[in-house]
Amino acid sequence: MYETHRYRHTVGVSAVRDLFGTMNHEGANKGILVTTSSFRPDAYDFIRGKPVELIDGGGLLY
Q: Distance (Å, rounded) from C-alpha 20 to C-alpha 33?
């Protein structure tokens, strides 16, 4: 399961929690959240140990 967002601000933990909740509800075994912006540290803290990948604007270039 994946989501993409074009935020002008950094993405916090709430967007990641929303994705993770949807993953659990739909039975997805992995989630990817992509943004043209960047992620706040709390987003990275939340995904630790979870099957979620965060890709930010810098990661889109490679």
A: 10
8 A C-beta contact, residue 56 and residue 38: yes
Q: How many structural domains does the chain have?
A: 1
Which residues form the domain of 31? Answer: 2-61
Q: Which CATH number is 35's domain given?
A: 3.40.1340.10
> Alpha-carbon distance 4 to 15, whole Å?
11
Its pTM stands at: 0.84
* pLDDT tens profile 22-59: 999 999 999 999 998 899 999 999 999 999 999 998 77
Which CA distances in Å does 59 have to 18, 26, 33? 21, 27, 12
Structure tokens at 23: 């993953």
